[in-house]
Amino acid sequence: MIDSLRKIAADIDNLLANDTFPATVEPAYLREAVLDYPIRGGKRLRPALLVWSCGLLGGDTDAALYPAAAVEVFHNWTLVHDDIIDQDTTRRGVPTCHVKLTGQTRANFALSEDNAVRTGRDFAILAGDLQQGWANDLLLRSAQHGVPAEVTVALGRNLQKLANRDLITGEALDVELSIRDLSGVTSEEIRRMLAGKTGALLRFCTEAGAMIALKETDPARDEVVRLGEFAVKAGIAFQLRDDYLGIFGNFDSLGKPLGSDLRESKATVMLIDALRMATAADRDRLLGLLGRAEYSPAEMSEVRRIMRESGAAAANEAESGALAEQARNILRTFPDSVYRQNMLDLVNYLINRER
Amino acid sequence: MIDSLRKIAADIDNLLANDTFPATVEPAYLREAVLDYPIRGGKRLRPALLVWSCGLLGGDTDAALYPAAAVEVFHNWTLVHDDIIDQDTTRRGVPTCHVKLTGQTRANFALSEDNAVRTGRDFAILAGDLQQGWANDLLLRSAQHGVPAEVTVALGRNLQKLANRDLITGEALDVELSIRDLSGVTSEEIRRMLAGKTGALLRFCTEAGAMIALKETDPARDEVVRLGEFAVKAGIAFQLRDDYLGIFGNFDSLGKPLGSDLRESKATVMLIDALRMATAADRDRLLGLLGRAEYSPAEMSEVRRIMRESGAAAANEAESGALAEQARNILRTFPDSVYRQNMLDLVNYLINRER
Predict the structure, then answer these.
(1) Which end of chain B, N or C, is surrounded by fewer C-beta atoms within 10 Å?
(2) What integer pLDDT is reported at residue B351 of this predicted model?
(3) Which residues of B touch A84 (CB under 8 A)?
(4) Which of A111, A130, A148 is opposite residue B179, by nearest beta carbon?
């Protein structure tokens, strides 16, 4: 898997770094902001999933390159706008897009600090908007790189449905969950949010790979649907596992400090289950432990104890394990190939990692 | 022209009000926000321009309906994000998208006022993001409504190039002009900003109409290029005329009070020309008159006198008149038809209106 992943990442890096779409964006600092996240590199798991899904069904994986690049840029614009919404200042240790643009605005123009912050954010809104256009353009260019025009149109429509509408709906539900009282939140709502925010773009990746391989315009075709289900299950399994490791692991996989979900009182399935299933005394203790600026080892131990004794931790692990197994079982209905093995390896890597 | 405009507006109103794309957006207030601007109605000048350009070249105007609807929704998402950036609270007398969403956030959730404002704005960012996806989906659906798939792909790419990249570049230049010292701004920079912010989407409309009529995938084809030039010239002529009427008219056509450009120290071609061409004393007087909260009739008279005596007003009127005439002359190179007449009438209506 690793070799294939590296090869795909290198292809995507190369394509995006040399692409002409952003070249005429002005001012220069906005053009740099448009390129920033897309050329930061990374594992490029979404492009790989798209390319492998195409290969799994016997397709020409070269035809999957532009859609794979499109998915990566699409993912990046959602991160740019998410970072504004979440008011995040760093992403994997590097300043976020709006923070960088605020710095440039502060340096270039005579503005009050408030105005510099606001204008930096405004430019970042536009940077994300431009990246959405860039992603669409990359996808449509598939028609010049081995994907029939009818299939390209169908891919474009599926991108709007899944990666735009369903993903943003998931993001909006996540924003709402962050401002609602936890007592009214159900774990079912969180699963619905995750299916959109995490699952929809992964689903687009596998469905697109399948549609390219089969030269299919209808995403309701059986193989396409099954690979879409695989992606949503694997994505939610990964997210549940991530929530677990955010409490029980050593470091959060996203580079956030352990316990950051607790600090933000983030509604995870495990937290909502623990509040529902714990004793009244533990429930109160857990609520009292939310929203702190920092967590001592003793406080983390207490949270872990409540998560364990309530049964929420075991339920979370059982659910992520079951979803991962269902995802693998879907893959096993397809003929064995190096692509199928890569996808199985990816599921195992995402679920079994311990940080 | 008016009857055709009414017919097109009714078709667009009907299509957008009943479209299924936004139907599964959640939460409900976000779905309403996505629909809000698109179903507020309006003249639908951009869709008309697209439909008429198609008719002008002998195309089936029914095939232009989905692209025309796409253009309207595309225009609306740029307004939603512009209103955030400009901190506008009303649009033609009705609360802007982010203001409405702030009101709903305030009513639905227990948040501080600061947090309600921020969250309302965050939801409005997402509403605009969703509308960009909706616009793309509408455009791609042309392939099911009389536009060949290859042409649909070409339209989609032209939308990203003109309506996304060039338009947003114009918007970003406008943001930059609003925070720069006026003394360093040239009128050429403003024309470049206008070509993007106002011209690019109009250019997409006429080019798309032409490409549909000719079943053409190459926007470099002569008729397509000429109609694109027509649109940019007409758009800049309109904007210059609008700037003039914002000082010399009775009411601003956008429903803003007379002198609002002065209040915002907005860099218009006429203002920059006046600052360059006026006597030193008048230049200082004009600079002293910028950025006030209100303008008395005497102050407006003084501004008008300086605009006139400097020659800036006459230069502005000459330029908008010349551009409008060039636009009309381009139209006259096409065979006479009801569509050509509608487009000539539109230019005359936009340029000759006195408010």
Answers:
(1) C
(2) 86
(3) 122, 125
(4) A111
Whether residue A169 contacts residue A80, with contact meaning beta carbons closer than 8 Å, is answered with no
How close B143 comes to chain A (CA, Å)?
Answer: 8
Nearest to B180 by CA among A92, A90, A314, A110: A110
Tokens of B30: 């976000």
Matching residue, tokens 């600092």: A29
Query: Which sign does the torsion angle of CA A240, A311, A259, A244 carry?
Result: negative
Give the gap in angstroms from C-alpha B235 to the nearest C-alpha of chain A: 20
Distance between CA atoms of residues A112 and A98, nearest Å? 16
3-state secondary structure of B114: helix
Contact A124, A91 (CB under 8 A): no
DSSP assignment string, B322-343: HHHHHHHHHHHTSPP-HHHHHH
Contact A125 B84 (CB under 8 A): yes
**Angle separating helix axes B312-332 and B297-309, nearest 10 degrees:** 70
pLDDT > 90 fraction of chain B, expressed in percent and rounded: 93
- Residues B295-343 pLDDT 10s: 999 999 999 999 999 999 999 999 999 999 999 999 999 999 999 999 9
Q: What is the residue type of B167? A: L
In angstroms, the Cα distances linking B9 to B22, B46, B49, B51, B344 are: 20, 10, 11, 11, 19
CA angle B140, B143, B146 (to 5 degrees): 135
- The answer to whether B314 and B308 have CB atoms below 8 angstroms apart is yes
The residue ranges of every structural domain in chain B are 2-352
Task: With beta carbons under 8 A apart, name residues in chain B contacting A32.
Answer: none
**Considering only CB atoms, which chain B residues are within 8 Å of A157?**
137, 140-141
Spell out which residues of chain B touch residue A69, defining contact as CB-CB under 8 Å.
none
Separation between Cα atoms, residue B312 and residue B333, nearest integer Å: 32
The nearest alpha carbon in chain A to B123 belongs to: A172
pLDDT single digits (tens) B195-250: 999 999 999 999 999 999 999 999 999 999 999 999 999 999 999 999 999 999 87
The CA dihedral of B148, B153, B157, B159, to the nearest 10 degrees, is 50
Q: Which amino acid is present at A147? A: V
Judged against a pLDDT cut of 70, whether residue A256 lies above it is answered with no
Tokens representing A28 are: 């220069």
Cβ A172–B126 below 8 Å, yes or no? yes
Instruction: Give domain B2-352's CATH architecture.
Output: Orthogonal Bundle (1.10)
Tell if the CB–CB gap between B152 and A153 is shorter than 8 Å: yes
Contact (CB, 8 A) for B71 and B349:
no
CA A42 and chain centroid, separation: 13
CB contact under 8 A, B168 and A129: yes
The closest of A84, A51, A31 to A205, measured between CA atoms, is: A51
Asked if residue B205 lies in contact with residue B159, where contact means CB atoms within 8 angstroms, the answer is no
Our CA dihedral for B213, B214, B219, B220, rounded to 10 degrees, sits at -140
Residues of chain A positioned with their CB less than 8 A from the CB of B158: none
- Partner-chain contact B140 A126, CB within 8 Å: no
Dihedral angle sign, alpha carbons of residues A217, A220, A222, A226: positive
Hey, what are A250's tokens? 């050593």
Predicted confidence band of residue A255 (pLDDT cuts 50, 70, 90): low
Q: Cβ of B334: how many Cβ atoms within 10 Å?
A: 18
pLDDT at residue A300 in the model: 94
**Cβ separation B169–A119 shorter than 8 A:** no
pTM for this predicted structure: 0.96
Q: Which two tokens stand for residue A85?
A: 């919404």
Cβ-based contacts of A109 with chain B (< 8 Å): 179-180
First to last CA, chain B: 19
Q: Name the band, by pLDDT with cuts 50, 70 and 90, for residue A251.
A: low
Q: What is the pLDDT of residue B352?
A: 82
Tokens at A314, concatenated: 């075991």
